[in-house]
Design goal:
The structure is a homodimer of 433-residue chains.
Chain A: H1 11-23, E1 29-36, E2 46-47, H2 51-59, H3 65-73, H4 79-86, E3 93-97, E4 102-103, E5 110-115, H5 116-120, H6 123-147, E6 152-154, H7 162-174, E7 179-180, H8 183-189, H9 199-204, H10 208-219, E8 224-226, H11 232-243, E9 249-252, H12 257-270, E10 277-280, H13 286-291, E11 299-302, H14 304-307, E12 317-325, E13 331-333, E14 348-354, E15 360-367, E16 378-379, E17 381-386, E18 389-390, H15 396-408, E19 426-428, H16 429-432
Parallel strand pairs in A: 6-7, 6-11, 8-9, 9-10, 10-11, 15-19
Antiparallel strand pairs in A: 1-5, 1-12, 2-4, 3-5, 3-17, 12-13, 14-15, 14-16, 17-18
Pathway (chains A, B): Cofactor biosynthesis; NAD(+) biosynthesis; nicotinate D-ribonucleotide from nicotinate: step 1/1
Keywords (chains A, B): Glycosyltransferase, Ligase, Phosphoprotein, Pyridine nucleotide biosynthesis, Transferase
Enzyme class (chains A, B): ligase
Chain lengths: 433, 433
């Protein structure tokens, strides 16, 4: 992606800046926080993803000539505001949960300390990235947990916007997927890419046997042959006849996957292809993967469900002003009182309370004060930006490692797929101490 | 968006091309079609969107030095295939439903006539765009139908990937939304942009009264004041006191919208602000909009539900090889026999059968032959690309106009929000004639 990210912004952020500039409130020191009021229905934990992408997008958040010309022509804001936008550089501080961290209701995922105008203008871009990437990572983590040691391949590019696809591949990788079919994700984020074989390739040939022979000749016996275009058992027979026992994999993409996996495994073994793997790919989600745990399957290819957050395509995060300097010159917690959308004012700090054996016990949130570490706890907020400069890693492998660590700390009930409460309670310091 | 779109592609498309090039099958004349096997659960019609974006993305579908270097380094395909990709230019023909058209199960939304290799490599990009944009437009059309003459504003940018947001704004506009909050959609696609006011802006001030006064001073009395930060009726009182009866709008973003709309309307009228409009924005979807039909509401701001397809974030379209030249040199229909995923082979043609009064009656699909126009029918496939050159409009306003026309032709049952069958049946020519 080239170019400015500055117009990936809602119209009203700029008009609010105009009004605040005019009244002299634009430079008031403020704290904005991103958090989720709740987890998606019945989920036991969420996974933060997108943080690295936010930090990179902020570097390109510049109102250049093209952006300003558009705003001027459409009369979105006045000349003074255009001048302010032209000079815009985020110069504040940002703390946040490390990318890949698990989260719970109220966890302060991002804490932005800046002037009002510098912070408010980031709302849309920050939430777009966080809501999308975290929705995918949260679903993907349930899938990799259900898959255990069997690798998951992300194959959902065709089921989501072409750029979401790249971000989804990255988020799924962070949550433990082993590879993606998306080539741009390989190039842009260094995610391993993988592919199998297509029905159209088989149908292109006069006979399935020709398709298999040609694929093996070009791609070698380690390739994956797609065996469900016509008749599965006939295809497996031909596949092993042509490839020999060194055939890499066969792919099943339809029908009763549990029953077929057993049949195909038995057939492959009978034919001597004991090392040939079985890849399954038909409309899998975390529940289908769990149902295949006892079946002889080696890899899961997951599409629609992972890129669309398995029923929850947006993570429900909001970005709220929680504190600002008042006319008396001191910082004051603020919160709207709106029915059904009330929030908690004040700058948050967060700690994961752990038992001496390292198992997570509670999410401790301090308001305007740092919770005390009991000795086995883990600080959750890390500094991401210091006076406008990015000071944290933005790469996917670091986040993937962090996720594996953070998920392993959770009590075992966290990994149940059935509906339940959050795996650990969120406790505000006042209640805890 | 700058740069190449060529790597927005699944790994296996390229390995299939390698195998087809090696065996001499890559140049076989082929027909690929994009269609949906079914509508999302209970929907009565779908809306095709993304066609214009596909045509533009195809222009940038080039394997340049950067793309080739990545593929070489990762050893995705062999040298011969890299050479073929370097020269890639789509040189075939494409027909499709005009953007904004309504569709039904089996409607041939895109018909690609090219060699195997030229057509197969477009699968991922075509489906990403079509599945995303059509999911949004299909949901958005139900919302604008429920809203009637009241304008809908698309405000969901923060609930979806930052680039999906731009495409979603475009798709919603095609389906009848009047404007979007997304500035980049304004710049890139010419969609009108709109904004209201933010809670953070009110909270920035020591008092709500100061916030309103400053906003009015900077943005004028025609602005929209957000009245639910603390107490709605107190806020409305202050708003009219400060702005006078010429206050543009007030916005409600929480609580019981139906009840509040009635109360606020009565209060505004009592205060003499009879021309002040009421904008509502809290978690609206088509059902919430329908429930507000009798309430005194002037505008709907819709977020999460429109950009995530109101429960169906991917339209379920597939891209299948349906016909190819065999070794005998003639075109032959092909289809996989896979359990639960069978498709219909052969090149499709499509006609919307209409009664003499213009009301749509059936989707007539001809296989390898053009259905006969009964005199009142409408041809559905228009030529989009002729020998590699785009020959159809790609802009959103044309598609918006087409959608309004196509939806108006549907029988009235099509616009019911309750679960039901497709509004008109899909009939294959064999059965019809």
């Amino acid at each position: 992606m080239n170019g400015s990210t500055a117009l990936l912004t809602d119209h009203y952020e700029l008009t609010m800046i105009q009004a605040a500039l005019a009244s002299g409130h634009a430079d008031r020191p403020c704290v904005f926080e991103a958090f989720a009021r709740r987890l998606p229905d019945g989920r036991r934990y969420g996974v933060v993803a997108g943080t690295g992408r936010i930090l990179e997008a902020l570097r390109d958040f510049r109102f250049g000539e093209d952006e300003l010309a558009f705003l001027r022509e459409r009369q979105v804001v006045d000349g003074r505001t255009l001048g302010w936008l032209a000079d815009y550089r985020f110069s504040g501080d940002v703390w946040g949960y490390a990318e890949g961290e698990v989260y719970f209701p109220g966890s302060p995922l991002l804490v932005v300390e800046s002037t009002f105008a510098e912070g408010v203008v980031l709302e849309t871009l920050v939430l777009s990235i966080l809501n999308h990437d975290s929705a995918v990572a949260s679903a993907a983590s349930r899938m990799t947990a259900a898959a255990g040691d069997r690798p998951c391949i992300e194959m959902g590019s065709r089921r989501t916007h072409e750029e979401s696809a790249v971000a989804a591949a990255r988020a799924a990788y962070i949550a433990g997927f082993g590879s993606t079919s998306n080539l741009e994700a390989g190039r842009r984020h260094g995610i391993p890419t993988a592919g199998t074989a297509a029905h159209s390739y088989t149908l292109l040939h006069d006979a399935e046997r020709d398709a298999f022979a040609n694929q093996l000749a070009s791609l070698g016996p380690g390739t994956t042959l797609l065996v469900d275009t016509y008749d599965v058992s006939g295809a497996v027979e031909v596949a092993v006849e042509l490839a020999g026992p060194r055939l890499g994999s066969v792919r099943l993409d339809s029908g009763d996957l549990v029953g077929q996996a057993h049949e195909v495994r038995a057939q492959l073994d009978r034919l001597g292809a004991t090392g040939t793997r079985i890849v399954v790919t038909s409309d899998l989600d975390e529940h289908a993967i769990a149902a295949l745990q006892a079946a002889p399957v080696d890899r899961y290819g997951v599409g629609t469900s992972v890129v669309t957050g398995s029923g929850h395509p947006a993570a429900g995060m909001v970005y709220k002003l929680v504190s600002r300097q008042g006319s008396a010159g001191v910082m004051e917690g603020v919160a709207k009182a709106s029915k059904d959308k009330a929030s908690v004012g004040g700058r948050k700090f967060a700690l994961r309370r752990r038992r001496p054996d390292g198992v997570a016990q509670a999410e401790i949130i301090g308001i305007d004060e740092r919770p005390q570490d009991d000795g086995d706890d883990r600080e959750l907020l890390v500094r991401l930006i210091k006076r406008g400069q990015v000071v944290a890693p933005t790469d996917a492998p670091s986040a993937r490692e962090h996720h594996a660590m953070a998920r392993a700390e959770l009590p075992s009930r966290a990994l149940r797929l059935s509906h339940g409460d959050p795996a650990i309670p969120t406790t505000y310091l006042d209640d805890w101490s």
